[in-house]
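Subject — a protein and its fold

Tokens — whole-number codes for backbone shape
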Amino acid sequence: MAGRGKYAKGVAKREEILRTALDVFAIQGYRGTSLRELAEAVNLSQAGVLHYFDSKEELFAEILRKRDERDNAEYSEGEDVIDTFVEVMRHNADRPGFVSLYANISAAATEPEHAAHEFFAQRYENMRLNLADGVRTRQAEGRMATDLDPEMVASVMLAAADGLQVQWLLKPELDMAEHLDYMWSILSSAPIRTEE
């Protein structure tokens, strides 16, 4: 019985660390936040924070996972998946710390042994599937050309979004959502080919 209480306290502390990290990283970002600062914010030592995670890389992946959970809860209620994708990009402009964390960790996570590798592989797969379904919905409604390959469109849009985020980190006046929306409008206005 005591073991279960200890486990519940550990889960609660881990959640507290992640919630606090969301606030700290949103403002200060990947480079501006040290593990020491995060530890101080949750009244732990650096080793104490890492007690709840296998590594600093796992901590970062879990921060991004928690951010995705919040975004999904806030933006996915009955919305068009493509419009939601653009809206999240607009929202990201208010959270430079997460954009920086995402850009840095996603690049490092391409290595198969990286603690965040599986998280990013699964995240991209899920996003590709969701965006491809959004393309299919628009095609069925007559709002997008039916000869466009939904999976390829989804992959290209994910690549565009990631590239726009990197450009925005270098040039903050760039409107990521506007550029992404522009690309969708080009794809949406592609002529619908008919069989002769």
Notes: The domain at 2-188 is CATH 1.10.357.10 (Tetracycline Repressor; domain 2). The first helix runs from residue 2 to 32.
